[in-house]
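Suppose you are handed only these lines of text.
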Amino acid sequence: MKIFLDTADISEIREAASWGIIDGVTTNPTLVAKTGRKFAEVVRDITAIVDGPISLEATSEDAEGLVAEARVLSAIHKNVVVKIPITTEGLKAIKRCRAERIKTNTTLIFSANQALLAAKAGTNYVSPFIGRLDDQGQVGMDLVRELVTVFFNYEFDCEILVASIRHPIHVLSAAMLGADICTVPFDVLKKMVGHSLTDVGIARFKKDWAKIPK
Ligand code: E4P
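From them, the structure of the protein bound to erythose-4-phosphate can be written out as follows.
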């Protein structure tokens, strides 16, 4: 499974990239706003660190506006993927972006039917928002299970990018189901690396190493 970092924070991206396990980055307006920095500067910095798909979100409500934004965003760097919300206008925009070879990531997916339509329109990635479903009492991972089946049945040229991740179990469950990508906040990524028994083991080996005559 590919791992993307779900953040616009450059220090987080730099650190995670140095671990050698980051395949791409996803952002959204909320994440970019949190940085307090100018959009162009944030994007410039991300593209300089990560050589993989970088999702940037379009916010227009009509297809015309979404496609216009997609052209501008995709012209920034070859790795840019344009996030388009799943609406009827979004579907029209996805189709046109595909024709213009602009890569899209269909966002705010909360049902398998939404993802099915986005895949048919020609999107490159669908982003089911797992944590937000869990937040309202639905089991988000059930949606990933449905998507894996549907996409396997029809061999869509579209990757399942599991988003809105809240904890390491989400990442593990996505991997067990065979999702293509998980986009992970930095704090969750750190939790995935750490284990108290690893810390205890390191301390014990260090102590015993000191006892060995050299
Ligand atoms: C990434 O593509 C999504 O925008 C992000 O994972 C949403 O996460 P949230 O539900 O924690 O805001």
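What can we learn from it? The chain has a mean pLDDT of 98. The two ends are 43 Å apart (CA to CA).
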